[in-house]
Amino acid sequence: MTNQLVECVPNFSEARRPDVVEAIKNSITAIDNVMVINKHSDLDHNRTVITFVGSPRGVEEAAFQAISKAAQLIDLNHHTGEHPRIGATDVVPLVPISGVSIADCVEIAKRLGKRVGEELNIPVYLYEEAATRPDRHNLENIRKGEYEKLKEEILTNPNRIPDYGPRKVGPAGATVIGARQFLIAYNVYLTTDQVDIAKKIARVVRNSSGGLRYVKALGFLVDGLAQVSMNLTNFQKTSLARVFEFIRREASRYGVSIHHSELVGLIPQDALIDTAIWYTQMDQFKPDQVLEKKLYAILQEQKESNDFLDDLAAGTPTPGGGSAAAQSGAMAAALTAMVARLTIGKKKYADVESEMQTVLTQAESIRQAQTEAVTQDANAFNAVMAAYKLPKNNPNRKQAIQKAILQAAQVPLSVANLASRTLELAKTAATIGNINAITDAGTAGSLAWAAMTSAGYNVRINLQSLDDEQVCNSLRTELLSIENKGKVYQAQLREQLTIRGGLNLG
User: Which of 40, 83, 163, 440 is catalytic?
Assistant: First the structure.
């Protein structure tokens, strides 16, 4: 599994034939770098939701194979169920998890939609963040009238023209593909079989009818009980607890109560933590007080560090010295932030708290930038190699090479500048920070010095291949200025280690 993770939560219009559901699931698990983490089938809805995560490329391929398999096995002309649907694969949301953005998921949605339309001959509509029209942002607008209505209107109604694929609907129906943030599918069952009550409550709780923002809701009869079926599209703005209590209050108006509730698929840990805080009134709670969350963060940091070292030791050009320089710079900034935190809040250092707050803010900003530069440096080198591999008769080859080399010089130049700034912050930390952490400030300075000088090597080697002498001179001058400032900060830091720390540095 890669550091880039995308979640995909396709909804399939089948739950009553386990062999069909299993075949669709197997089409997903057959793809490398993809892992199914949840499957939920509802017999009344006749709908299955499969949640899987993986690399962007793996998820894109797995989603296509699942849509293809569902189209082979599900005929909507013979499908019935409580839940609205327009396709065998009804909706395919893509959710950014780690190392990818919502914009990346939009691009995946577009590529996937185009391929499904062209290769499977299935109409595809883009929704949420991938929507090409405002009225297609909301899924319910696209699904209005369901499969039966769409089958008629797609032939004549211009508003029903799909984004990809044919202007006709076959037995597999149409598929809606898009990108969105994490969604919680949450159902609340009432102590009644009167579905009208669930529908009335759904009407007042959902945002589109003037209810709670970020809530979509419908009323159904499921397992002999009235059910309020919901999608919570932003649990941080409208919490699970608030929705639950809203429904409890509305139900009491009709003389019923909540029988139980359920999740469809997965839920972020933070949503449950928010709910626990709300009900227990634990106002002083901090997220890192959760044992498992704290432990996972520590283990994840260790894993990422080990993974980077393994990659660095591998017999491949990237990551290389430039990435190592950025990683050293990130470690230097992290240590500087640590010294600041060990100073802030201490009575002995109350008079310098404001300055150390500034050090902390700047160090954390630099740490993030240097961490991002680890990947940026590797990408820049790969871009140079890709440019050199262009055919020699390509008229744009030389320009592409020069552009890539310039970027390969600018990334380590930025790393050097950030490292020089970290040296200044480490010097400040050693001068006024917690005396018990002065050697940590010194170590931060040493790592920053290594980052600055190592990044400088990478700038210089790339400038040797840059044809524009004016640009070369400008970048060399900027690098020398950065290094000269760094030398001053390094000397001042060593002075503090000697005088204030009492270290004999020779």
Answer: 83
User: What's the burial of 464, exposed, middle or buried (CB within 10 Å: 0-12/13-18/19+)?
Assistant: exposed
* H-helix or E-strand spanning residue 15: none
90, 274, 377, 440: the catalytic one is 377
**Token pair for 466:** 């840059």
CA dihedral (252, 256, 262, 264) positive or negative = negative
Whether this prediction's pTM lies above 0.70 is answered by no
Q: What single letter denotes the amino acid at residue 21?
A: V
Q: What is the pLDDT of residue 302?
A: 66
377 belongs to the catalytic site: yes
Residues near 166 by Cβ (< 8 Å), separated by ≥ 6? 117, 121, 122, 123
pLDDT surpassing 60 at residue 1: no
- pLDDT greater than 50 at residue 2: no
Q: How far is CA 221 from CA 49, 82, 84, 189, 216, in A?
A: 19, 8, 13, 9, 17
| DSSP assignment of 213-274 | TTEEEEEEEETTEEEEEEEES-TTTS-HHHHHHHHHHHHHHTT--EEEEEEES---HHHHHH
Residue 433 contacts residue 419 (beta carbons within 8 Å): no
Q: 254 Cβ partners below 8 Å, 6+ apart?
A: 192, 194, 197, 200
User: Mean per-residue pLDDT for 365-378?
Assistant: 91
Residue 264's identity, in one-letter code, is V
Share of the chain above pLDDT 70, in %: 97
Contact status, residue 8 vs residue 60, Cβ threshold 8 Å: no
Residue 136: which of 178, 83, 74 has the closest Cα? Answer: 178
- The crossing angle, in degrees rounded to 10, of helices 438-463 and 469-499 is 160
Name the packing angle between helices 56-73 and 102-119 (round to 10°).
40
Q: Which residue has the tokens 């290094």?
A: 483
Interval 454-493: pLDDT, tens: 999 999 999 999 999 999 999 999 999 999 999 999 999 9
